[in-house]
């Protein structure tokens, strides 16, 4: 996987194919914990059997939600905030 911030990400599948997933426009207050939120969302979706593209779409949403907040820890986006961001960006991801 290659994370590219606002540029989205590229996920390499087991069959050596690459899936390009565009990023989301998001106001940036602080990038602290954005990568951690991205990784956690990707892993959460992956262990639930989601496709690489859906994992990456959810991960991009989590990273975008994180950069709008200050700091990490207790300030990372809640599930409700993540659902709202998904809804505002066309939905299609179940969490």
Keywords:
95 residues, 3 helices, single chain, alpha+beta, globular
What does this structure look like?
The protein is of the alpha+beta class. The chain contains three helices and three strands; from the N terminus they run βββααα. It has one domain (24-95). 42% of the residues lie in helices and 11% in strands. Helix 2 packs across helix 3. The longest helix is centred in the middle third of the chain and has 16 residues, at 52-67. The protein is globular and about 40 Å long.
How would you concisely characterize the structure shown here?
The model has no long low-confidence stretch (mean pLDDT 90). The chain has three helices and three strands, in the order βββααα. It has 95 residues and is α+β, with helices and mostly antiparallel strands.
DSSP helix fraction: 40-55%
What is the residue-averaged pLDDT?
Answer: 90
Radius of gyration: 12 Å
| Biggest pleated-sheet summary | 3 strands, antiparallel
Structural domains: how many: 1
What percentage of amino acids are in beta strands? Answer: 5-15%
Across the major sheet, the strand order is 1-2-3
Structural class of the secondary elements?
alpha+beta
Q: State the order of secondary-structure elements, H for helix, E for strand.
A: EEEHHH
List the helices and strands and how they pair.
Elements: E1 2-3, E2 9-12, E3 18-21, H1 34-47, H2 52-67, H3 79-88
Antiparallel strand pairs: 1-2, 2-3
Helix pairs in contact: 1-2, 2-3
């Amino acid at each position: 996987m290659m994370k590219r911030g606002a540029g989205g990400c590229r996920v390499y599948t087991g069959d050596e194919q690459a899936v390009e997933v565009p990023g989301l426009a998001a106001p940036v207050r602080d990038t602290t914990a954005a990568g951690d939120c991205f990784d956690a969302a990707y892993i959460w979706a992956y262990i639930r059997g989601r496709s690489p593209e859906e994992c990456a779409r959810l991960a991009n949403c989590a990273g975008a939600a994180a950069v709008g907040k200050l700091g990490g820890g207790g300030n990372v986006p809640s599930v409700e905030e993540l659902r709202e961001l998904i809804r505002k960006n066309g939905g299609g991801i179940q969490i």
